[in-house]
Amino acid sequence: MFTIKSSLIFLFSFVIVSIAQASTIPASIEDSDFSAHSAEKVELGKNLFWDKILSGNENIACASCHHSLAGTGDGLALPIGEGGQGVGITRRNGEGNAMIAERVPRNAPPIYNLGALSFDIMFHDGRLFEDPSQPGGFRTPAGAQFPEGVESALAAQAFFPVQSGTEMAGAATDNPQGAAAAAGILAGEGGVWDIIADKLRAIPEYVGLFQAAYPDQIYDSEDIQYVHIANAIAAFEASAFRADNSPFDNYLRGDESALTSSAKRGMQLFYGKANCSSCHTGPLLTDLEFHAIAMPQIGPGKNASHDDFGRELVSGNIADRYKFRTPTLRNVALTGPWGHAGAYDSLRAVVEHHLDPIAGLYTYADDVANNQAQAVLPEVGDAGDHDFTVMLDASRVADIAAANELPPVVLKERQIDDLMAFLYALTSTSSLDERHTVPRSVPSGLPVAD
């Protein structure tokens, strides 16, 4: 039986915990967190996003790896870029083609809410970010070749898949775009971006769409530049994939009934004992910083030995080894597989990894050794012979474990159930049916992302 004193202590403790949680629970996302875009610009971007004409061999679109019906990803641990056929988990090598040499080395990041003004850094390793001192206002792998007039980090990101031979450009011997990419010629006449713009200049329907989207900038076909393409793609992505009408959002806007009792308990754990909010903070549920959490490394990696040193590859600082950018958790239930290399095919499994990263890493390594790895990795060339090179090397697994920053957290199974209920409550209802974001056809006449 509670005494008056013990009841007061309990009430005081509850108030203290509630105050602490209230200080970390974010404000709701508002219209002011996003830029406004004209309907004409969004429509142009929609067509460009789905049109394979942006690729060197005209066989892959942005949507091939960021499909509306696959959570703006592809459902695979690691994407199959240039040369693949199909979308989502059915994507594969084209029949009659030589086997594709390699997969894209990192999981295709989801696009949800990347159009938010605060999202000023892109890619798993953050190699692109806003920097007023740099060309065009962004520090990017393009260096001095990067143009002026790019409107956002999301638009800046659209400059790079098209110049990757593995992703969209093709090989140097395949086409002019692939040759320019291989030579590192991105800007100017004969550069990757001009080659793409030139293809669009020759299509009257696209010229009309560009004129409608940019009435004060584009008067005839010669005015079309890749910067217009990138800005339009970003406008479409920001508009189509804004995700802020989940039960959690409704709760933040004052509807106490929007969350179930289980989800509310999960929210308390998320902002309390489970310590998720130490990294997944703010309205977008990410600090946009870089952390090492002993995430399993699979696939080709970023060097010949199949390692991926993450942020260190950008900063040059060994202290950043195995660190990757904190992903937003908006729509997280829709965006698997999870991890920078898509190692986890189960949301609960990746949550359990976060609760004890080192144990999760070694369990994963044991599963690989026993041929039980859960990663979805379709056959691509001889890449399958090397997909688990790192995880089968005890010394490299130990190196990943040693870099881990997250202390273990002990939760009961029912508490994990509650945490999962909260994560599912981050799913926006508008994202459950994205068919309206897919055009029936595109101006080039090429098949829509098949």
Low-confidence stretches: 1-23
Within the largest sheet, what's the order of strands?
Answer: 3-4-5
Q: Please report which band the strand proportion falls in: under 5%, 5-15%, 15-25%, 25-35%, 35-45% or over 45%.
A: under 5%
Mean pLDDT: 91
**End-to-end Cα distance:** 66 Å
Look at the helices and sheets and give the structural class: mainly alpha
Helical content stands at 25-40%
Count of individual helical segments: 16
Largest sheet: 3 strands, antiparallel
Could you give the order of the helices and strands? HHHEEEEEHHHHHHHHEHEHHHH
Please give the radius of gyration in angstroms. 23 Å
Query: How would the global form be characterised?
Result: globular
Give the beta-strand count. Answer: 7
Describe the fold and architecture.
With 450 residues, the chain is mainly alpha-helical. The protein is 33% helix and 3% strand. The protein has 16 helices and seven strands. The strands form three sheets. It has a three-stranded antiparallel sheet. A two-stranded antiparallel sheet has the order 1-2. It has a two-stranded antiparallel ribbon with strand order 6-7. The longest helix has 19 residues. The N terminus is likely disordered.
